[in-house]
Amino acid sequence: MISPLKLQSKFTSVWPLLDERSRRLLAANEAMSLGYGGISAVHKACGLSRQSITNGIREIEEGQTAQPGRIRSHGAGRKSILVSDPLLVQALEELIDGQTRGDPQSPLRWICKSTRAIAKQLGKKKHPISHTKVAQILHSLNYSLQSNRKTEEGADHPDRDAQFRHINAAVSQSMELRLPVISVDTKKKELIGNYANEGQQWLVSKEPIKVQGHDFPNPEIPRAYPYGIYDLARNAGFVNVGTDHDTGEFAVASIRGWWRYEGKKLYPQATKLLITADGGGSNGSRLRLWKLELQKFADETGLAISVCHFPPGTSKWNKVEHRLFSFITSNWRGEPLVDYETIVNLIAKTTTAKGLKVKCRLDRRKYPTGRKVSDEEMKQVNVVRNTFHGEWNYLIRPSTSKLA
Predict the structure, then answer these.
(1) Which residue intervals of 259-394 are DSSP H helices?
(2) In DSSP terms, which residues pair with 101 in a beta bridge?
(3) Are 275 and 182 in contact (CB under 8 A)?
(4) In whole angstroms, what is the distance from residue 63 CA to residue 18 CA?
């Protein structure tokens, strides 16, 4: 057998010129020529592991040819952590969901916890991971690091974050029980006519769509009031386009329309509906007409209606804003909303890469403003207020008399 020093010098001269596969095959060929004890001798001479030399011998004996652009056989090497731990991304999103900050209208999101802290928490949940891999996954999920921007005026409500956590817990619990959870709001009213619409679209060069030069508010100009209902569990939207006024009656009528056309088919066994909504507008926490109409809806359907309002000044955190309305706005950018049919068609054609589907209907019913709800009518509302901010979190149960 060749001496160890000569064998080592034989490898030293050519080793730096070879790639991983070539080294493996050269070492394997030398070990085969040495016969018994050849693997150990080559291992000591070149430093390649016994397993790699054995793999090279097998490749030579099986006559495996090199695959273009590869030095290892298909499937070789350590598998990605996302393959070996398929629940990792879900665990990461569950961990940071309650910590998410920023403007949800933007496609980017950002979080307060450091990647090292996140990695530590995931490790405790039996998902070991490095902080660098956490950063890579966050970037792939469209999270990014952001600095502060001075845009807010005034102070946040002291229980703002606590209310966010309360909403997150309520939504998670309802979804675990497979109960319907919807996020609702009215998109900004749109002028109907040949008026400029923000955004750009691809057209023949130097042939833009010509629109009117002014869109001053005028009572005679028709308006559209798109009220959106976003189903969190199914990533589906339902938009009721009103033509009259955005009132509490219109808001609940839109929810009623979603339940009749979609909800009761998707959730036939549901006994409860959770609604997350802004604190103001037609579904405001202090609006009497909103609660009275919800009571009528509860009586009609037999559903217990649970409502969680977002704190003041946080309407953009409502899921309907950045999971439905933002895509509708993007879909009709640069397109004049010349009539109601155009609005309905553009909304209904809104889709996303993640499978969002939207249904839309036109509501030409009248919803007069100035409706006063008396104290006697409010006594008919069977409301149970939560111990934590009952003005934001409450349950409206069907009236027993109606159920009987």
Answers:
(1) 264-266, 288-301, 319-320, 326-331, 340-348, 375-378
(2) 110
(3) yes
(4) 20
Q: Where do runs of H (alpha helix) occur along 85-114? A: 88-97
How many degrees, rounded to 5, is the angle at CA 169 between CA 166 and CA 172?
150
Tokens of 128: 């070991």
What is the predicted pLDDT for the residue at 92? 84
Question: By C-alpha distance, which of 264, 330, 265 is closest to 106?
Answer: 330
- Report the DSSP pairing between strands 110-111 and 100-101: antiparallel
Give the 3-state secondary structure of residue 138.
Answer: helix
DSSP string, 242-283: ESS---HHHHHHHHHHHIIIIIHHH-TT--EEEEEE-SSGGG
Which residues, including other chains, have CB under 8 Å from residue 356's CB and lie 6 or more apart?
235, 236, 237, 323, 324, 327, 350
**What are the structure tokens assigned to 78, written together?**
């350590």
CA distance 73 to 33: 24
Q: Which tokens go with 215?
A: 């869109």
Length of the chain: 404
Determine the pLDDT at residue 147. 56
Low-confidence ranges of the chain (pLDDT < 50): 101-111, 150, 153-154, 201-204, 206-207, 213, 403-404
